[in-house]
Amino acid sequence: MANVEHGGAGNAFGAGPARTSRSWVVAVGAGLWLAVVALLLRQAAAVLRLPPGERLTDLETWIGPEGVLHVPGSLYATDRFTGTPFAGLVLKPLKQSAESALGVAWTSVSLLLVVALGLIAARALPEPVTRRTSLLAAPVAICLLMVSLPVRNAMHLGQTSILPVLLVLLGCFTVRGQRTSGVLIGIGAAFQPTMLLFAPLLWLTGRRTAAISSVATFLGCTALTWAVMPSDSWTYWVHHLAGAGLGSSEGLTNQSLHGALLRFGMHGPLEIVLFLLLAAAVCYVGLRRAVRYAREGQLLLAVALTGCVAVAISPTTWQHQMLWVLLTVAGRVGKRASDRFVWPVAVILAISLPPKVLLPNMTLLDPLAQNVVLVAALAAACAVPFLSTSSPYYGSPTPTVYAAPVRARLRKVPLLPFWKRLLTRPNLLLELLLIRVGYSAYSHVRLVARGGRPTAEHHGEQIHSLEKALFIDIEHWANHAVVKVPWLEEFLNFYYETFHFFVPLGVLAVLYIRRPVDYRWARSALGFATVLALLGFWLYPLAPPRLMPGLGFIDTVHGVQDFSKPDYGTLTSVTNQYAAMPSLHFGWSLWCGVVIAVLAPKVWMKVLGLLHPFFTVCAIVATANHWVLDAVGGATVVGIGFGLVYVLAGPRPRKEGVPDDPGEPPGETVVAPLPVDVKGGSAG
Questions:
Q1: How many CB atoms lie within 10 A of CB 658?
Q2: Separation between Cα atoms, residue 115 and residue 134, nearest integer Å
Q3: Nearest Cα residue to 321 out of 262, 259, 392
Q4: Closest CA to 189 of 200, 197, 177
Q5: Residues in CB range of 574: below 8 A, 6 or more apart
Q6: What whole-number distance in Å separates Cα of residue 219 and Cα of residue 197?
Q7: 638 close to 590: Cβ distance less than 8 angstroms
């Protein structure tokens, strides 16, 4: 983290900015704490408003006819309880609690544990930590924990998985004395046996008393459980091989190496041998890395990596046990300042969003989608190149290069410089994640923004009437004229279905490789236009011509249809058929045409680029998928998108600034000035 601490007092001119900076940090911190409170209340309401039987389902495994917790037989008579016998022993005193009171108490205590976990993690951040980071780290950590899938899953199921993580962090960072530390870690291992891996970490980092104490505490808790609950202990440790046979080990919720191998179709002795070999390799590599980071002062990262190893090699690792992956954001990756966000963003997305949001719905990617959290844990433990504290880039990464600000080229348009113009190529992984998640959000909002058939058809009548008044209602003529020419109909159908996605992606790829500064400009404009289009879909559902009964349009792309069932076929069943205004088919094509016309070096390239929106508007009208005014709406949102980028970031730089790796040593931010003419515009 860059050191942004303000300098010493005594300069009257420096007091103002320093005071402003502190005020900004306080304001942001207050907002984050309000967000923490809102998330806590929302999570509590999400659990408690569910009817009995649908909330705290794992905890309610023992609910009897009287509505209280009791254990009539074995904990493992069904596959609903997946904890250790020690966890069952700890929960047994709750058997006299009333169900409603237990739900409120359990939810409240779990939320307090999450808050405590966030506070400890924030205090354990490795040095150097700026004042701004120290003030904002705690609420940010709690917010990230609250939105993560492991916490939400544990809250919903009534699981104890938050407790072992908290016990380990308490033992490593809070309590004094190695024996007490070892006792806490040993109790955590009694809840989740693979937490015993922290004993080797303690031993190899010089805390041998704590290591011995943790192992002794685990053995003591396990022996106590055998004495009190011998049948359940035998079932768990022997019959189920320390939990390996609990539940459906092949299910997607089992994010361990064992579960992944089972999902790949491996069973029997071969799978067991391969699992043991992989587990041994992961243990060796992961613990070796954890010990190295712990010895150089990055103890939180070392603990997080050990936790990732523990959940990866466990026979069963459920979703609510994967909190360790989130803690690896404490590590720093990348030499450039602009790369520092890649790993945290990737981890937060992987641990907070369903795999279908992160990855396209393709059979080829199913193995990765089914094991995305496990892949993140293995990558953190064994592969991600976290920086050493001895690296010159650890505290001072290569600074980001910005273009010098320029004045507005349009005198009547005031600029509101919200962000600086970067002159270096953005990180590819971060851009791919941004594009994928953004497109998933776009698809989801487009799908749920339904206004109903009557409303959409009423809006269709409005658009049709307006076009008649403007003498631009050419859709019916164009549609029937194209149907009479088979080759033209086939060409426009192909153009409509294919070029909508491939051309924008191709333009973005070329800009990323050849024109990184212009890539940021164009990508931001496209993002703004898409968000504005989503508002249009939400506020004004519109039936396209092909879904307007009685007007005689022919759907050349999808064929004959039942107007009462607009969703049909492979694609129409997963999208909103009434998301027509504005037309993003035309909007995205116009964006491509503008970008190519502005940036292409050859005249024939510019002409070819402008032909794309022309062919697109012909395709969307002739195939009866859009009204002419839909194209006008698409052009409007694209124009507003470019305008917003102009207002928020200033004019587009007229020359590429510097190479991606300027070769500057860590230090001050390099500013690449652009020549400015006497009128305030950039030269060239």
A1: 15
A2: 16
A3: 259
A4: 197
A5: 447
A6: 14
A7: yes
CB–CB of 189/311 below 8 Å? Answer: no
Q: Record the tokens describing residue 313, joined without a space.
A: 């090699």
What amino acid occupies position 671? Answer: V
> Residue 402: enclosing H or E segment and its boundaries?
strand 402-403
Q: What is the pLDDT of residue 353?
A: 82
3-class secondary-structure state, position 250:
coil
pLDDT-based confidence at 14, cuts 50/70/90?
very low
Contact 368, 360 (CB under 8 A): no
Distance CA 651, CA 403 (A): 11
CA distance 412 to 403: 23
| 93 preceded by a cis bond (ω within 30 of 0) | no
Instruction: Go through the chain and tell me how many residues it has.
Output: 684
Q: Check residues 453 and 137 and name the one with the higher pLDDT.
A: 137
Q: How far is 86 from 186, CA to CA, in rounded Å?
A: 12
When mean pLDDT is compared across 202-211, 473-482, 630-639, the lowest value belongs to: 473-482
Can you tell me the distance from the alpha carbon of 130 to that of 141, in angstroms, rounded to the nearest whole number? 16
What are 333's strand-pairing partners? 386
**pLDDT in the model for residue 55:** 67
Amino acid at 607: V
pLDDT digits (tens, 9 = 90+) for 473-493: 888 898 888 888 888 888 888
Place of tokens 């917010």: 143
